[in-house]
From TrEMBL:
Name recorded for this polypeptide: Aldehyde dehydrogenase
GO MF: oxidoreductase activity, acting on the aldehyde or oxo group of donors, NAD or NADP as acceptor
InterPro entries assigned: Ald_DH/histidinol_DH, Ald_DH_C, Ald_DH_CS_CYS, Ald_DH_CS_GLU, Ald_DH_N, Aldehyde_DH_dom
Species annotation: Streptomonospora alba
Top-rank taxon, per record: Bacteria
Length: 468
């Protein structure tokens, strides 16, 4: 069983490297190794050499090893949770870093358990045809800083299950969490099958342009996703791009504000709003607008914000100073445009850490920057509507479509509204809840490709039809 101190020591550079800062205290935790193109070439060569033997083990043995990796994560879960909390900022408790460490284990086990058997697609007098899936080969994965260990697992678990080797680059803001995850699971994986290379944007660009990768997976901004699609086009790797979102929620006039307030709040403010599929703009029928805003303010008042390692904290700091400035700027614009602060705003701009208070803003029109630009932080605009068609049109107006939600006491009516929204996932009376067996992916500027469940396994494999 690892301790936080031993895990941190195992993944930090002995000398040099990139400083990693605790976003709650501005303290330097340590220095992450900084890898370059020569390291990439060595990792690619090792992965290419290891991949055929890994694939030849078969699904049963690879699944056994993934379960053993999950066991190793469980033994070190508390140490991993503390490292994620110190590096990324999310609290240990609630839907925080202990939740993230538990998700790592759960997704490893789900990838191991998901069946993907060959399917007979033709059986008649003309012959027989069977559709199956085999490894794509070498997978390159580039991850984000908001859920570093969990998203890394979403990428590596299905890829390994299907017999691929993986080379992964974490965000330069949260490399230690992913290095720690790799150090834990590599205790049971063959050498060369999984390699994590921390580095900057130049390393990521080298990966996406490298012809050795048969598949690229990326979670991050739409702008970077477009750059990856362009830079990789010359060698046509398969792509899974989970890109930016600006998820809408629509509250119908028959909803109960008190009953939905807690789920609405956590749909928006999980990980202090730093989640791709968080609720980021809320359209509420004018008859309930004030009641919903007040109910959310009550939940906010009861949800403490503080350093992630404080057991009382339920919300933490923003991970980077740059994200703090984005949120602060959008809220200041909203105030200047006549927006009303129900709660929040007014951060301590000179204090330690990137703490921005939980903020609710009303009185904005549907085109305000805080509404139409992804804030990725703890500031939620609440927009009143009178006509449902108008609310649906506003929900669909942006060139993103990761998630959305509809809130109502009538589930069947909510499902009818949900079917009109342009998003990869639409939740009813909840928002942003993911399950390892339920496919997840975006439309429009939120990317393409599916993760999780059997569809996620197919996305890191190549189909093969055998005809007799």
């Amino acid at each position: 069983m690892e301790t936080y101190e031993s895990l941190l020591a195992a993944v930090t550079a002995a000398e040099g490297g990139r400083p990693v800062v605790d976003p709650a205290t501005d303290e330097v935790l340590g220095h992450a190794p900084e890898r370059g193109t020569a390291d990439l070439e060595r990792a690619v060569a090792a992965a290419r050499a290891a991949q055929p033997d890994w694939e030849s083990l078969g699904h049963r043995e690879r699944s056994r090893l993934l379960n053993a990796a999950a066991d190793a994560v469980d033994r070190s879960a508390e140490a991993l949770a503390h490292l994620v909390s110190r590096e990324q900022g999310k609290p240990l408790n609630g839907p925080g870093s202990r939740f993230e460490a538990g998700g790592v284990s759960a997704w490893l086990r789900a990838a191991a358990a998901t069946p993907l058997d060959p399917v007979q697609v033709l059986d008649d007098e003309s012959g027989q045809a069977t559709l199956g899936y085999r490894a794509v080969g070498l997978v390159g994965a580039i991850g984000p800083w908001n859920w570093p260990a969990l998203v890394a697992t979403w990428q590596l678990a299905p890829a390994l299950r299907m017999g691929n080797a993986v080379v992964m680059k974490p965000s330069e803001h949260t490399p230690l969490s992913v290095l720690a995850l790799a150090a834990i699971v590599d205790q049971v994986l063959p050498e060369g099958v999984l390699t994590v290379l921390p580095g900057g944007g130049d390393l990521g660009a080298a990966m996406t342009a490298h012809p050795a990768f048969d598949k690229l997976m990326f979670t991050g901004s739409t702008r970077t996703g477009k750059a990856i699609a362009a830079s990789s086009a010359g060698h046509l790797p398969r792509l899974t791009l989970e890109l930016g979102g600006n998820d809408p929620g629509i509250v119908l006039p028959d909803a109960d504000p008190a009953a939905i307030a807690a789920d609405l709040f956590w749909g928006a403010f999980i990980n202090t709003g730093q989640t791709c599929a968080a609720l980021k703009r809320l359209y509420v029928h004018e008859s309930l607008h004030d009641d919903v805003a007040d109910a959310l303010a009550d939940v906010a008042a009861q949800t403490p914000m503080g350093p992630g390692t404080d057991e009382k904290s339920m919300l933490g700091p923003l991970t980077t100073g740059g994200q703090f400035r984005i949120v602060d700027g959008l809220v200041e614009q909203a105030k200047a445009a006549g927006g009303r602060l129900v709660t929040g705003g007014g951060p301590d701009r000179d204090g330690a850490g990137n703490f921005y208070p939980t903020t609710l803003v009303t009185g904005l029109d549907a085109g305000a920057p805080l509404v139409v630009e992804e804030q990725f932080g703890p500031a939620l605009p609440i927009v009143a509507y009178s006509d449902l068609d108008e609310a649906v049109a506003h929900a669909n107006a942006l060139d993103v479509g990761l998630g959305a939600s509809v809130w109502s006491s009538d589930v069947e009516r909510a499902k009818q509204v949900a079917s009109r929204i342009e998003a990869g996932t639409v939740w009813v009376n909840k928002h942003g809840t993911l399950h390892p067996m339920v496919p997840f992916g975006g439309v429009k500027g939120s990317g393409y490709g599916l993760e999780f469940g059997a569809e996620g396994l197919k996305s890191v494999a190549v189909p093969q039809v055998i005809v007799t």
